Amino acid sequence: MPGPIQSIERAAAILRLLARGSGRLGVVEIAESLELAKGTAHGILRTLAGVGFVEQDRDTGKYQLGAALLHLGSSHLDVNELRSRAINWADALAARSGEAVRIGAPLEGRVLVVHHVFRPDDSPQTLDVGGMLPLHATALGKVLLAYDAALLASWRAAGPEAYTRRTLPPSAVARALAEVRRAGWAAERGEMVPGEAGIAAPIRGHGGIVVGAIGVSGAEDRICEPSGHPKPRLLEQVRDAARAVSRDLVASR
């Protein structure tokens, strides 16, 4: 087994030092406290500042813990923030695709629907906001499972339920998630509700972490080609919307 990585150990020591103190510390103070060369300490601090783990005071040049590090205490992005950043893009996706749009985030081993835009026609529809969907039988859920190892482990431990004859068994879900990671999107076809299909793509926050998913859903013949593959037009629209929401989230940070 390879040994510990010295630069990571030093970065962790700097973070502990800053967390222990009540005020800001300068490069020289940090270097002396940890018996590091000034140049080494400065290089590590510059890297930590680049990812938001430390912040430098413009007037004094001293460092303190950054907001991005403090935010790690929250396991998930605030769903209200996710919804507020995604609303306009979800509305646009519904208008372009002609299908219902849902945005989901992980909660208690399920998919929480944080936003739902009705299909833009006069058909009767039910608002899904606040509803909980299964992870393995929906496109939204597959996206979340594919990029969250802890969520996947808890899902496996819970024992997935079969909703239709097309609901994937655990062995097939594992293969499907590998394909989601390769392709960057997920699909469902009659796996939760017979005759319904969906497409979803990941929404990424700061650092590229997947914090949610956005997708379209509707009748199988409208979402999929006769071959069963998602229609390319819809797939591209979903992916475009996911990228747009992700850009807004990162910019807001």
**What's the overall geometry?**
elongated
The end-to-end span amounts to 37 Å
By DSSP, the count of extended strands is: 8
Number of helices: 10
In terms of DSSP E residues, the strand content is 15-25%
Main β-sheet description: 6 strands, antiparallel
- Contiguous uncertain segments of 5+ residues: none
Q: Order of SSEs, N→C?
A: HHHEEHHEEEHHHEEEHH
Helicity level, as a percent range?
40-55%
Strands of the largest sheet, in order across it?
Answer: 5-4-3-8-7-6
Q: Which radius of gyration do the C-alpha atoms yield?
A: 22 Å
Q: Which structural category do the helix and sheet elements fall into?
A: alpha+beta
In round numbers, the mean pLDDT is 89
Keywords: DNA-binding, Transcription, Transcription regulation
Protein name: IclR family transcriptional regulator
Organism: Amycolatopsis tucumanensis
Pfam families: HTH_IclR, IclR_C
Could you explain the architecture of this structure?
The protein has 253 residues and is α+β, with helices and mostly antiparallel strands. It is 46% helix and 19% strand. It has helices at residues 6-20, 27-34, 38-50, 67-71, 79-97, 139-146, 149-158, 170-183, 220-223, 232-252; strands at residues 54-56, 63-65, 100-107, 110-117, 132-133, 186-189, 196-204, 210-219. Helix 6 packs across helix 8 (170-183). The longest helix has 21 residues, at 232-252. The radius of gyration is 22 Å and the shape is elongated. The mean pLDDT is 89.
